[in-house]
Amino acid sequence: MDSSKWQSAIVGHGREAAGQLLANPFNHRRHPQKQRDVVASSISELGFIKSVIVNRTTGHLIDGHERVMQALGHGEETLVDVEYVELSPEKERLALLVLDRSSEMATTDSNALEALLREVQTGDQVLADLLSDWSIEESIVDSDPPIPDSECGKCPTCGREL
Q: Helix 33-46 to helix 125-137 angle, to the nearest 10 degrees?
């Protein structure tokens, strides 16, 4: 691929009230409750750390539907960071298909993941469970799994104060 021919479709950044953002009628992604809980917990713990993507051509979201839903849960006037792109309706539909799928194709370096998991602590049980489940899925044996700040001093098995 000749990168000299690459063009940026990004045309701006801004903030919009969540109630003004339009869900994409072609969005095929559904968000199960467990994912919604993880997104809510990550926003609570970290804040919004990723903009949603809006196509200026159609006004539709291309990425970030669940983050917008979380913002709407706090009121239609909740501000959301937006990255604006200009794509034809046909390219918008392709972007809906490619963005998430290409991310899902990434593989995990178990050693790097294990090192990162050892460095991370969270006070949120939903996020702690996510990290623990991920560690198990990747067959990373952690003799000292992270304990949420809210449970420090408690036995992880029975909850008894230590």
A: 120
pLDDT in tens, 29-41: 899 899 999 999 9
Residue of 52, 54, 84, 56 lying closest to 70 (CA atoms):
52
Q: Provide the whole-model pTM.
A: 0.76
- The answer to whether 140 touches 117, Cβ cutoff 8 Å, is yes
Please state which of the four CATH numbers 3.40.50, 3.30.70, 2.60.40, 3.90.1530 is assigned to the domain occupying 8-104: 3.90.1530
Token pair recorded at residue 130: 């996510």
Q: How far apart (Å, rounded) are the C-alpha atoms in residues 88 and 128?
A: 41
